Amino acid sequence: MGILSTKRIGIVLALVWLGIMVYLWFPNLLPGFASKSKNVDRGIYRAELFQMMRLNVSNLTDAVHVCITSDKDTIGGMIALINSIYTHSKHPVVFHLVSDEQSVEHVRTWIKETKLHDIIYEIKAFPSKWVEGKIKLRGGRPELGEPLNYARYYLPRLFPDLNGKVIFIDDDSIVQADVYELSQVNLKHGHIAAFSSDCTGGSKRLTMRKNIYADYIDFKNKKVKELNISPTECSFNTGVFVTDIDLWRKENITQKLEYWLELNTREEVYGNEIGGGGSQPPMMLVFYRNYTHLEPNWNIRYLGLTPGTSYTKSFLKEAKLIHWSGTFKPWGRTAQHSDIWDKYYIQDPSGKFEPIRRYNKG
Ligand SMILES: *[C@@H]1O[C@H](CO)[C@@H](O)[C@H](O)[C@H]1NC(C)=O
Ligand SMILES: *[C@@H]1O[C@H](CO)[C@@H](O)[C@H](O)[C@H]1NC(C)=O
Ligand SMILES: *[C@@H]1O[C@H](CO)[C@@H](O)[C@H](O)[C@H]1NC(C)=O
Ligand SMILES: *[C@@H]1O[C@H](CO)[C@@H](O)[C@H](O)[C@H]1NC(C)=O
């Protein structure tokens, strides 16, 4: 008898569960609920439901998966970026966050105690030992040597349950459109990722560089020579990309990136050039002429190159993604168009992170 009733309860629970899942994930199948489904799409109530159902993010197969990496110095950027995506998304989004060990709890609190509390996310600490002894900068900007800058190489290892399309966005960006659209980019046959080329779209004329591989890579290096790549090939930006994480795994892209990372500590491969090193050159070597192009409007960049304004307000209004790549970050004192970023920034409830603004005292 006991066993029977347990079974019955099990069946009832399974049916209830199924009903909730259908309602949550396929709201369009239930036209009568269309008006309510907007909230559901935004992820409201989902976080709690997840815990209740003992599910994890790998079970959300039809959602848009977004990875963001950040350390204690830039963590406010991660929050503003999440908020911008959350604000404009009409589809379920799962955030896969990576930070340094000391920021994990900080981020959890920031999400829990603010309007972001309903987002679906997971957060991992990046094991900095993965890149220990593998980072060598020769000149350039010291922040490019931060371990978290290289976490993007390790997405399959950080998120072993994650499959399919994954979007990576630098934490010095904000999104002004539905990120679902970005996830719908078709990777061309044989391509593992999509990037924004430096030679098309509005970002081109602003760089003051030629936007070519020679800006980033040392073509005197023997191993680089063996690749037979063209120094005048157009570069691309690695701050925003869409990848098929299964293909990335299958093709050992992480190991390929590590190869160049390591080689650069022993030989001059990159880092002394105008590009200044960082995580960009190995990706340019691995994905040479082997990537799908993103629509330029999904990475309007170089806002951090100069403190002066280089884009008009009306141009930026049309941008789907705005990226402060360069030195002058939107949480710093002198960034251009930081008012756009401020719209999405959510004050840190623990008071540890504070953007520097002219109207702040001191
Ligand atoms: C996610 O849940 C599945 C079962 O639903 C389990 O097999 C898997 O190990 C879980 N992954 C993590 C990271 O908890
Ligand atoms: C959740 O995903 C895991 C794979 O990570 C799978 O093994 C499990 O069956 C899924 N659970 C449900 C309830 O769909
Ligand atoms: C990836 O690495 C594994 C283990 O080193 C190897 O067995 C496999 O052949 C590699 N795959 C490719 C496509 O290089
Ligand atoms: C493009 O990348 C894939 C996966 O790494 C590889 O199999 C293929 O040979 C590459 N194609 C070219 C033209 O380099």
Automatic annotation (TrEMBL):
<protein>
    <recommendedName>
        <fullName>Glycosyltransferase 8 domain-containing protein 1</fullName>
    </recommendedName>
</protein>
<dbReference type="InterPro" id="IPR002495">
    <property type="entry name" value="Glyco_trans_8"/>
</dbReference>
<feature type="transmembrane region" description="Helical">
    <location>
        <begin position="9"/>
        <end position="26"/>
    </location>
</feature>
<dbReference type="GO" id="GO:0046872">
    <property type="term" value="F:metal ion binding"/>
</dbReference>
<keyword id="KW-1133">Transmembrane helix</keyword>
<dbReference type="GO" id="GO:0016757">
    <property type="term" value="F:glycosyltransferase activity"/>
</dbReference>
<dbReference type="InterPro" id="IPR050748">
    <property type="entry name" value="Glycosyltrans_8_dom-fam"/>
</dbReference>
<comment type="similarity">
    <text>Belongs to the glycosyltransferase 8 family.</text>
</comment>
<dbReference type="GO" id="GO:0005794">
    <property type="term" value="C:Golgi apparatus"/>
</dbReference>
<keyword id="KW-0479">Metal-binding</keyword>
<keyword id="KW-0808">Transferase</keyword>
<keyword id="KW-0472">Membrane</keyword>
<keyword id="KW-0328">Glycosyltransferase</keyword>
<keyword id="KW-0812">Transmembrane</keyword>
<dbReference type="Pfam" id="PF01501">
    <property type="entry name" value="Glyco_transf_8"/>
</dbReference>
<dbReference type="InterPro" id="IPR029044">
    <property type="entry name" value="Nucleotide-diphossugar_trans"/>
</dbReference>
